[in-house]
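Z., the sequence and structure:
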Amino acid sequence: MKPTPEHDARMASMTFASVYPHYVTKVERKGRTKAELHQVIAWLTGYDEVILLELVEKKVTFEAFFREARLHPNAHLITGTICGYKIEDIENPVTRQVRYLDKLVDELAKGKKMEKILRQA
């Protein structure tokens, strides 16, 4: 499946705060912790917990969320399919970054070891 320009625009304008509670619920329901979720988000974005919670409070869009992030140099190693989209084929940077995050949250919820989730080159 290939994202449309409308899909990309919708992803960019969606607020991180609208999705964050779903991430928390998903990982906690599967026996993982909010601290582990924050560790995964910090690895991908460089945001510590204080900044992360400020961004939730400010209701920043995903576009703003990733514009200010320092994406991990190994983020390109996040591959596979998420929500029907093959991550490595997504051309729009914001949409690809949102799907990176979705994939990491999925892997955490599925019980994957943290060392595997936090890709080492």
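The longest strand covers residues 81-82. The chain has a mean pLDDT of 95.

Let me know what you think.
H.
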